[in-house]
């Protein structure tokens, strides 16, 4: 009769413990292991856990009806021996002068604080590889009113393996010039200290860390009663240069170990390259590149005269050619005229989002350049004429002096002034020689 009730109670206990355990993802409890009327149920299989995360050691126990449980103690020691006072990692009596193993301080907690519920499951957080080993339970209480205790012989073993979960990164579609936010979530932790989250640029962006971005503070989301998800967000404005560069999110745990995840950024962009300052009859050669796939590139000219959006194919003459390649479109206009000047827009459609780039093409007309040339030539001509005439005058003056001395002989007048010289000279010059000097 007593035994029947006991078994019934026992199965219901195991059942409820089982349901908690499955929600925590830990292993399933084995059949109870009994000594006298002290029974314990723990996992037969080794419990695997990851460093940095936490583990729940599922456990339930029963004591004889004349025993009243007061405190629960957990030990960790080698599987071959019985654990002793130096192996205590957890004690529900926190007032007692008990020497807990220092490395377990503040990392162990009982899931159900009421020891009378027979729930001895504990959670160990901030796991380290050194936490691997065997764990043993003791219950202290009153047997028929007298202090007593019982150490369960069955142990449960935990293996903390060096495998780390990677962080998860999420981000929306990146478009050049449009502010965006990347999110990195650390693996779900039941840690008491938050992990360090850092962002590392690789590739083209490496030289310019954070490209004008900003990291917002951690977020701390509760997933279950024990686990919290830690997030870091990075807000920045993507550029075409960032396309195909790598970004890494690195998580540093309390034990200084790290785990990271790298993603290849895809930035939606459209970019025009080519010479936009032309002279008449040159060839306009513009290339429009895009990261969008498939690239539906369209060239539009915003005419300087018409002030209208014009589709290239419809509006331009036979001098135009467009070569479409996988990720780019090349626009060629041979023998450009002033009419070809204007704003050229390259646009590419991506879903319902159109991205574009534009370039202002100027064409210097040959007429203008001809005028400029004429002006330059005439300036040159005028200048050289001036120089020549000055030189000529000088030459003429020396000639005059010479002829003036001849004139002196002619007129026998010793007073010679520059102003008078010519008149005097004319008077004296022999006929026929006059024309030669005038020209
Ligand atoms: C053990 O403790 C957990 C956490 O408080 C609780 O959800 C669960 O019901 C308890 N199990 C039993 C058998 O009391
Ligand atoms: C996260 O929040 C929980 C409560 O929601 C808190 O107990 C825990 O200490 C916080 N962790 C950090 C690292 O801030
Ligand atoms: C990005 O990462 C991949 C592999 O993770 C690597 O092959 C590639 O070279 C990286 N690119 C740059 C620009 O670092
Ligand atoms: C950086 O961002 C600020 C606004 O957040 C903006 O005013 C500034 O021009 C940006 N600098 C560069 C180099 O993009
Ligand atoms: C982690 O590394 C930092 C420096 O890199 C050091 O100051 C700190 O003591 C280390 N912590 C542990 C737990 O090893
Ligand atoms: C246009 O420019 C591209 C690169 O700038 C060049 O490869 C191509 O040969 C040029 N085409 C013509 C017709 O000049
Ligand atoms: C364009 O070229 C076609 C033949 O290739 C010719 O029939 C047509 O007249 C040309 N149009 C112009 C505007 O030159
Ligand atoms: C360039 O255009 C001008 C005027 O449109 C024309 O006279 C000339 O023959 C053209 N030259 C070439 C090489 O097509
Ligand atoms: C694109 O279209 C979807 C529905 O068709 C709409 O929900 C979304 O807001 C649109 N996005 C933009 C950038 O217009
Ligand atoms: C294009 O350049 C010309 C000359 O520099 C200027 O007058 C015009 O305003 C520019 N147009 C645009 C749309 O930038």
TrEMBL record:
Keywords: Cell adhesion, Lectin, Membrane, Signal, Transmembrane, Transmembrane helix. One of its GO terms (cellular component) is plasma membrane. The keyword Glycoprotein does not apply. Residues 1-25 form the signal peptide. GO terms for biological process: cell adhesion. Belongs to the immunoglobulin superfamily. SIGLEC (sialic acid binding Ig-like lectin) family. It comes from the Eukaryota. Its main location: membrane. This is Ig-like domain-containing protein. Residues 167-264, 267-362 form the Ig-like domain. It comes from Oryzias javanicus. The chain crosses the membrane at residues 373-392. Pfam families: Ig_3, V-set. The keyword DNA-binding does not apply. It is a single-pass type I membrane protein. One of its GO terms (molecular function) is carbohydrate binding. It is found in: Membrane. InterPro entries: Ig-like_dom (IPR007110), Ig-like_dom_sf (IPR036179), Ig-like_fold (IPR013783), Ig_sub (IPR003599), Ig_sub2 (IPR003598), Ig_V-set (IPR013106), SIGLEC (IPR051036).
